């Protein structure tokens, strides 16, 4: 049960990072865009990996 909660939190952070990527594209802030993209990829990966791990057992 706790792993599902963790996956949901990871997914929420990944979604916020994706919103940040879009905002940073608008502001043309390359440094913040890079950090936002890395954050979105990392947290997205861990969210999907955690969900798959819970589904497969």
UniProtKB/TrEMBL annotation:
Regions crossing the membrane: 30-52
Keyword annotations of the record: Membrane, Transmembrane, Transmembrane helix
Pfam (any one): DUF2759
InterPro entries cross-referenced by the UniProt entry: DUF2759
UniProt protein name: DUF2759 family protein
